[in-house]
What we know:
Elements: H1 20-32, E1 37-39, E2 43-45, H2 50-83
Antiparallel strand pairs: 1-2
Organism: Aliivibrio finisterrensis
Domain Resolvase/invertase-type recombinase catalytic: 1-85
GO molecular function: DNA binding; DNA strand exchange activity
Amino acid sequence: MIHFSRNGDVMKVDRLARNTINALQIADTLSAKSAGLVFHDLGDVDINSDVSRVIYTTISAYAEMERKYILQRCNEGRERAKAKGRRFRIASLPYSVDRCT
């Protein structure tokens, strides 16, 4: 999918990749194609610059950690609800022949 990327596809670093290793692989792929990264919240990130790469790696690591914390809190909430006898289910939209999904 990286081959089809366009301007404005990803606004923030934490939405680019699920983990730090994947974020660095994406940066390497873009760098090999002489492309760069510009993030809405960070501005231009020159992935070939040592300082920018450290910043990019650090933000990617924090995003990975935050994602793990969110998953942990969601699982804890489900367990608490289960212990209280509440059922956890994902609401689904009713199927309709009039609606194209």
